[in-house]
Amino acid sequence: MSAPASRRVPEGFTPTGTIATHADRRRVVFATVVGTTVEWYDFFIYASAAGLVFGQLFFAPAGEGFAQILSFITVGISFLFRPFGAFLAGHLGDKYGRRLVLMLTLVLMGVATTLVGLLPTYAAIGMAAPILLITLRILQGISAGGEWGGAVLMAVEHAPKTKRGLFGASPQIGVPLGLLLASGVMGLMALIAPGDAFLAWGWRVPFLLSVVLILVGYYIRRRVEESPVFTELAERKEETRMPIVQLFRKHALLVVIAAFVFAGNNAVGYMTTGGYIQRYATDPNGPVGLTTADVLGAVTLSAVSWLVFTWIAGWLSDRIGRRTTYIIGWVLQLAGVFLLFPLVNSGSIVNLTLGLVVLTVGLGFTYGPQAALYSELFPASIRFSGVSISYAIGAILGGAFAPTIAQAIVQATGSTMGVTWYLAGMTVLGLVATLLLKDRSGIPLGPDHEAEQEKSPVYGLAKA
């Protein structure tokens, strides 16, 4: 039931009736960009290290080939715990606010990342080393599962109706910024401490730097006001008692379809963010054999491209709709998938860089509008749970074991063609899921419009 007209909040106003100023919105955008950049820097330096050194340092007794597979499996294991983080964060976020969750996840991620940089290796403490490594990666996964939904809702729920795609792109660009920062710092350390020095201590420095980044991110996020949608819910005492139960009772199919949308992007993106290309292109026994510093430099450049096209796609989705922007993105991503390995396998660092940059065009177009798309799919009272859990499930179906699958395919077949077809299949899956959803660009997000928000965005269904 809608609230009385006197209690409705006009577009551009906070629930207390004050105008949401440009300064307020700039502060929210800045805080979400910085916070998600720090979170994903922490997440990606682990993936990069998994591709470059963890196999040798923590899993060497398993043998060279299997040690690397085990190393990539630890990247994927964390994804299995992201739904737990999403469930926990969704419950807390829908009951106690988006801002609280953002603070908690930032601290948890930073502590886990810093401790990885201090871990003894297998040679020092035996089996305890990989067990501790996996435990810390699980904590990273729990944090990542809760972080994204909070950052997205803070950005989108503060945004003007006509700029949700652009505002929602701010936490999205934190991912390529995190990749850029992680690859840049790893690449710098590969230059400062090449060869055995990188293996001995150089890889640890990027993890230890997380302490500084977390302090900066925490300070900035503390200065941001709570989401106006949650503030209005709290003032009316209309928070849902069991938001996760309500989500799956009414919107289970929507969660699955939304998860498939993200899975199509995430599987392809994790060729670099999951460390696979870094390992494949630098393997001294492989067909490419490029230097670590060169490959990390190429990944860093591709992160810049990914950032630019993510931002463009968010802006464009405000003009042509989320669904249309996504469809364009899936076509571009499919083209990038088929070009990637022929360029990488040429053995040229220029071609590898070109392949990664071309791939990021489609990745940006299928990632930039996601924050706005997800926010417009779910009712206000269970929105945090909806976007967080859909995202976490999509990450498991998509990127969780994409590097492991790619490594296993190449070891079994001796060719990257099977990897190309796997990534193409995931892209098509994302396209089909997108086609099943109606475009709800501009739908009111506040609690006054729950009845409208409850109508299913899935084609062919009258109610979720």
According to CATH, what is the class?
A: Mainly Alpha
Q: Determine the fraction of residues in helical runs and give it as a percent range.
A: over 70%
Radius of gyration using CA atoms only:
21 Å
- Largest β sheet strand count, sense and barrel closure: none
- The secondary-structure class comes to mainly alpha
CATH-derived architecture: Up-down Bundle
Number of strands: 0
How many distinct domains? 1
Percent strand equals under 5%
The residue-averaged pLDDT reads 86
From the N-terminal CA to the C-terminal CA, the straight-line distance is: 17 Å
Low-pLDDT stretches: 1-19
The gross shape turns out to be globular
CATH topology: Growth Hormone, Chain: A
**Which H/E pattern describes the elements?**
HHHHHHHHHHHHHHHHHHHHH
Task: Explain what you see.
The chain has 464 residues and is mainly alpha-helical. It has one domain: Up-down Bundle (Growth Hormone, Chain: A), CATH 1.20.1250. It is 75% helix and 0% strand. It contains 21 helices and no strands. α3 packs antiparallel against α18. It is globular and about 60 Å long. It starts with 21 loop residues before the first helix and ends in a 10-residue tail after the last helix. The N terminus is likely disordered.
SSE arrangement:
Elements (H helix, E strand, L loop, with lengths): L21 H37 L5 H17 L1 H15 L1 H19 L5 H4 L2 H31 L5 H29 L3 H7 L1 H5 L1 H13 L5 H9 L6 H27 L6 H7 L9 H29 L1 H23 L4 H17 L4 H6 L7 H15 L4 H12 L3 H19 L14 H5 L10
Helix pairs in contact: 1-2, 1-4, 1-6, 1-7, 1-10, 2-6, 2-19, 3-4, 3-6, 3-18, 4-6, 4-10, 6-7, 6-18, 7-14, 12-18, 12-20, 13-14, 14-15, 14-16, 15-16, 15-20, 19-20
